[in-house]
Each structure stands twice: as C-alpha cells, then as structure tokens.
Write a structure and sequence with these properties.
By secondary structure, the chain is α/β, with parallel strands linked by helices. It has 2 domains: about 5-245 and about 450-475, 3-Layer(aba) Sandwich (Aldehyde Dehydrogenase, Chain A, domain 1), CATH 3.40.605; about 250-435, Aldehyde Dehydrogenase, Chain A, domain 2. It has 15 helices and 23 strands.
C-alpha cells in the first residue's frame, strides 16, 4: 500500500507510517500516512522561514490564481473528496460532500480577498506629514487542526494564511490525515513555491510540541481540546508569539413555550445529533420551558426513533459512527455518569451493530437533567444531549449563560421580543434563532467567548486580524 508522505520544502519526504482506519468499517484501512518526527518538523519550519521573504512580497495576482485553482479543483472533486472524508471520519456522505464544498468556497473567498488587500492613508495632526496604515504578514504560521472537520477547518486556516502572505507548517489530527494530505497536494500542484506550505503529519506530542518549542514560528492557530489549547497558549507566551485558540463548547438551545414545535425539534435534532454530535457548535444542552416541555420531549423522542445510524457511505444514513474507539468509550462513560447523576435516560444510550464493524452508538437523550450535572457542564463531543426543564424565559437565559464555555447559543421562539433580547444577552460568540446552533457561513466570523475561544475570529475578512500585523508609516511631504 502506498505511503502518503509529508511535504517539506517542496519535496515529499518519507517516514514511518500509521494506518488510517475507517470508523464505519474497521476492517478497512483508508491508507498509510507518514508519522513525522521532531526533526521533520524542524526542517519544515526552516523551509517555511526560508520561503517567507519571497512569498510575503509576492504579487496579489499570484496568490489569487493559486487559491482560485485550489478551490476549483476541490469543487470538481467534491464527490471523491467527500467520500474520502466520510471514510476516515465517519461523517455521512451528504454532510461530507457539503463540508468539501465549503472548503472550496473558503478558497474561492480568500482568492478574492487577495485582490482586496487594502490599507488607509490619513493625515497626521502635524502639517505636511502623511500617515499610511497597512497590514504585513506575520511570518511562519503553525496550523494545528482537529479531526471533526477534516477538510473545512484546514481550509479556513490555510487559505487566509497564504492569502495574506504567510508561510505555513501544518499538522492535522492523527485520526484524519487523508483529507489534509489531499488539500496540501492540491495546493502544491496549484503552483505554491517550495517551502510556502509544509505538511507534517504525526503525533501532537511530537510534531505539535516541536512547533510550540520553535522560536521561528510567529503565530499558531489551534482548534482542539481546552487542555491542549492551554498548553499552546503557555508555550506561545514564552516566545511572545501570536496565538489563536478555538476550543470546547457546551452550547445551549432554549425552547420557549411559544416555539413552533416542528421548527424546535428539527433544530434540536440537527444541533445535538447530526455529525454524531461531534461538533464544537453542537447543542448538547436543551433548555426547555415548562409549558412546552412534555410535548417537546415526546416529539423529539419520536424524531430520534426515525434517525438511522449506519455506515457513513450508506444511502439513507442520518448519523454515522463515532470517530474511534477512544471517543466511543468517552461517550459511553458519560452516559453512565448521567445515569449515576440521576438524569432520566429517555432515549438511546446503547451500542449497536451493523453490517460492517464500526463504532456505532444510538443518539442519547437525557431528560430531568440539571445544569449542575457533569453531563450538562462538560463537553462530551458525542451524540449525547441533556435536557433541562426551566420555569420561564428569564430562567432559561440564566441557565444558558451558566457555563464556562461561550461558542454558540440558540433559541426557538416565535416572540420577536424574546429573540431580540436573547441575541443581545446570550454570552456566546454566535447566536441562532430558530436554527441549529451548528452551521456558520464561510464568509462570516467564527468564534466564541469565555473558555471556548481566544484571540481574533476565524473566517471572512476578520481572519486578517490574526494573520497580519498592523504597520503605521509616516512620510514628510
């Protein structure tokens, strides 16, 4: 079987390899992917540093053409790449193709942004002096991505990094190297100069640590667990480097008495259980007022009974497998914790078997939960949702905000008054009204508050805040 190698300094470099296993069919090896070393990482950083002076001064048309070409190829291969994503991560094929399309759109957007680079020219308070305010690229950007969005998150970090003239050392999650390799290969063939984009697949404790230890990395953008994010922050402070963190979430969805029941159920089911609940924006807390509580529980349970859990590539599958055995154990451990805490298991919670061996788990709904329970406070990252009964809107809002996280927050209501108040007072970076909490357009800012995020927002024109640094220049006329 072919070993997919790391890209360092424009060359494909061999190394030891690890198997990439399909969570929908554990008998299938998706591919063998390089397991990079600390030395590989150091070489990649050196290559990126050497390539930075020329790339940072490259023409905007060159950057535009390369990013546009990459976006076009991703779109042309959306079915192929979507199937690859579904095989390695377990996301259903329609979701995987949708994510691939989003990656293409991200590259298209930043291809356009490369032609829209701008600054300001303003007068000084002193006579005969002009002031220019411009943005310069940072330098070498270290990119560390998670396994739950194997092509979209790499796209929304790599595309702006290159657009604004930075060079990149990219470490994808160990569980999902295939999509990352494909996107780097596409960019490499699109014409990137040697060393501008480097791929080092491997363990976080090896590759990620070598990136954190290097004084030549000017910025690190990280998406992953809260614990690892804190280590990224601490290591970055030592080098006075810029860092950007997207971490955990325990996102609430409030359902008020006046909600459209069908709309609320669809939003809750999508938010909590689609993508196997493996989204940082998933609604893992449903906060429901008394008047609609029983009807909502009955309707949501009926909805869950119709959802098909099966092989991600199989037509008609609504929910694929959990990503791997370790995450499956985390999910089942939390299900047992919920039982012990006294929540009522209203639906699911059982491992299930399918035609192909995989990590299949029923969508799990706990009712009679409280906001103090661990299942309501700690991120599980699986298809496990706790439902909390509250008296009224005021208690619902207070409960929604009572969390150490603040990524996304949602409300189902037909009241303009409550919707408007919630948008203003929800302590989250993103707020959804009568929509799933998961799902943000590619051209708008993404990020949260409190323990969910640190640093400038990702995506859209706001990405410039992280990937560039502001320069102020004076000229005597």
């Amino acid at each position: 079987m072919t070993i997919y190698q790391n890209l360092i300094g424009g060359e494909w470099i061999g190394s030891d390899a690890t198997e990439n296993i399909n969570p929908s069919d554990t008998n299938e090896v998706v591919g063998l992917y390089a397991d990079g070393s600390a030395e590989d990482t150091k070489n990649a950083i050196a290559a990126a540093k050497a390539a930075f002076p020329a790339w940072s001064r490259s023409g905007i048309w060159e950057r535009h053409v390369i990013l546009k070409k990459a976006g076009d190829e991703i779109m042309a291969r959306k079915d192929e790449l979507g199937a690859l994503l579904a095989r390695e991560e377990g996301k259903t094929l329609p979701e995987a193709i949708g994510e691939t399309i989003r990656a293409s759109q991200i590259f298209e957007f930043f291809a356009g942004e490369a032609l829209r680079l701008a600054g300001e020219v303003i007068p000084s308070v002193r006579p005969n002096i002009g002031v220019e305010i411009t943005r310069d690229p940072l330098g070498v950007i270290g990119i560390i991505t998670p396994w739950n969005f194997p092509i979209a998150i790499p796209a929304w970090k790599i595309a702006p990094a290159l657009c604004y003239g930075n060079t990149v050392v990219f470490k994808p999650a160990e569980l999902v190297p295939a999509c990352s390799w494909a996107i780097v290969d596409i960019l490499h063939r699109a014409g990137l100069p040697k060393g501008v984009l480097n791929l080092v697949m491997g363990k976080g404790s090896v590759v990620g640590q070598a990136m954190l230890d290097s004084p030549d990395v000017s910025g690190i953008t990280f998406t992953g667990s809260t614990g690892t994010g804190r280590r990224v922050a601490a290591a970055s402070l030592e080098h006075n480097r810029k860092f950007q963190l997207e971490m955990g979430g325990k996102n609430p969805m409030v359902v008020l008495d006046d909600a459209d029941l069908d709309v609320a159920v669809e939003a809750a089911a999508n938010s909590g259980f689609f993508s196997t609940g493996q989204r940082c924006t998933a609604s893992s807390r449903l906060i429901v007022t008394e008047g609609i509580h029983d009807k909502f529980v009955a309707a949501l349970t009926a909805k869950l009974e119709t959802l098909v859990v099966d092989n991600a590539l199989k037509a008609g599958t609504h929910i694929g497998p959990v990503v791997d055995e370790k995450q499956l154990k985390t999910d089942t451990d939390y299900i047992e914790i919920g039982r012990q805490e006294g929540a009522k298991l209203a639906f699911g919670g059982e491992l299930i078997s399918r035609e192909t061996p995989g990590f299949y788990l029923q969508p799990t709904l706990f009712t009679e939960a409280t906001n103090e329970m661990r299942i309501s406070r700690e991120e599980i990252f699986g298809p496990v949702v706790s439902l909390i009964r509250v008296k009224d809107y005021e208690e619902a809002l207070a409960t929604a905000n009572d969390t150490p996280f603040g990524l996304s927050s949602g409300i189902a209501t037909t009241s303009l008054k409550h919707a408007t108040h919630f948008k203003r007072n929800a302590e989250a970076g993103m707020v959804m009204v009568n929509l799933p909490t998961a799902g943000v357009d590619f051209h708008v800012p993404f990020g949260g508050r409190k323990g969910s995020s640190y640093g400038p927002r990702e995506q859209g024109k706001y990405a410039a805040e992280f990937y560039t640094t502001v320069k102020t220049s004076y000229t005597l006329a």
